[in-house]
Amino acid sequence: MKTYQDEESGKNTQRERFQEMLTDAKNGLFNGICMFDNDRFSRSTKDLLNVMDDLLTYGVKLHIYNLRHIDIYSEQGRFILTNFAAFSEFFRGQLASKIRVGVKQKMKNEWFGQAPYGYTIISDTIGNRKKNTRLIKNAEEQNILTLMKQLKEEEKSYSEIANYLNENRIPTRLHREGTKCSWHASTVRNILMREEFKHYDKQERNISPINQTQGTQSSEQPL
Q1: What is the DSSP annotation of 95-151?
Q2: Taking the domains of the chain in order of start, what are their residue ranges?
Q3: What's the CATH class of domain 16-108?
């Protein structure tokens, strides 16, 4: 007996452990697959039925605990399984839609996502939930950001700016195994380009920049 445990969504079959299970089935390592519910196997009706038929050609059958009293390989059983699978797929779609709506609503009044360089995210904790998520200036990063702008005004390239920051041991935001990461030209470019985009939005599109007091969000995505 072998256990295959997925940590990924069942919306498709491109999951590492799932593919491993299919490979083992093709190699004849077992003749049955047990699961608690059909949505643990797949949340796609088409994928569930197609994989189920493919496995049967290898002599492998599915055994679903919640449908243990139904022969899912009979015409009636397959009809019932198809309906259960369709409901699982419908529920996944509805849940994803509600999450998207919730995120959009949250973004109207609060900051959502990673803090852009130069800022820190803070929130008020009310009960067990975070509310009024907003951005405030990070003094250390603002100083580094000002330095980067000054170097760029001196017509330094992104690579030269990154080298300057590394040579002067100016820390990045990221940590890996307790060690500060190095600056790269692409990182410097992304940070400075984002600042230029904010300026463009303000003047050309009349969109306000980040408001540190209210925590409103400009249209660009966080770096």
Answers
A1: HHHHHHHHHHHHHHHS--SSPPTTEEEEEEEETTEEEEEEEEE-HHHHHHHHHHHHH
A2: 16-108, 110-204
A3: alpha beta
